[in-house]
Amino acid sequence: MSKTIIIIGAGLAGLSAALQAAENGCNVKLVSSLPSERAQSVMAEGGINAALNTKDENDSPEEHFTDTIKAACGLADPNAVWGGMTQAAPELVHWLLKLGVKFNMSGYDDVDLRNFGGQKKKRTAFAQSDTGKQIMTVMIDAVRRKEASGMVERFSHHSFLTLRLCGNICCGCVIRDEYSQETVELPGGCGYCCHRWYARIVWKYNGFAEQYRRSHRRIVPAWCSSGKWRDDPVSSDNCEMWWKTHAHQRGGQRGKVAGCLP
Hints:
- The chain is of the alpha/beta class and 262 residues long.
- Helices cover 26% and strands 22% of the residues.
- The protein is built from 6 helices and 14 strands.
- The strands form 5 sheets. Strands 9, 10, 11 and 12 form a 4-stranded mixed sheet that branches. Strands 1-2-8 form a 3-stranded parallel sheet. It has a 3-stranded antiparallel sheet with strand order 3-7-6, with no helix packed on it.
- α1 (12-23) packs parallel to α5 and α2 (61-71) packs across α3.
- The longest helix is centred in the middle third of the chain and has 18 residues, at 131-148.
């Protein structure tokens, strides 16, 4: 039986999560207040830092990590910078390249790199001056193919209202159509998650952080593919979810996050 997953937000992170979840057999409900073409990700210009070492500078994820921590003046979470960013970045760039993102190339098959702020070596992969737009174009097309196959259902122009909790189990959410003002209840897995190789995945959507602060409870995702809310206890060891994140597990499985809490 396939799992139903709710993803709030349809920018680059949301589209990435939706694509990966659908490719792994999950039914995805993708909620956003605006279409993906209006996401902030479209306006990103600079590029993506990754220690690809195509300039023969003996670059490495370790050096990328050191530069990033130093540039952050001690404010960055080392676990997030290493496990969720610098270690995963080369694989992520190659994944985007395989999807069809037209990065600037150096030679036949090497991604071109340039200098960028806070980095000692050339490690910024870019696509002309509109990297974000080109990545989003490719991701939107890929997710639309999943929509056509029925694996992804979009809820554009819908705003998030609240989570549905059954005890300490998160079993869905309530959204509102911004045109008709009608509310819609979506059953599915939805939660604040972390993994020992990740730093926190911070919810940046209206109400999510407030829901967590007010509840002071451990929220565990529950799968409701039957369309009914679950009220039975679910062990976090038995939960598995795909959530919006670019972090990779060390095994190289993009976006796969264990359903557990700190």
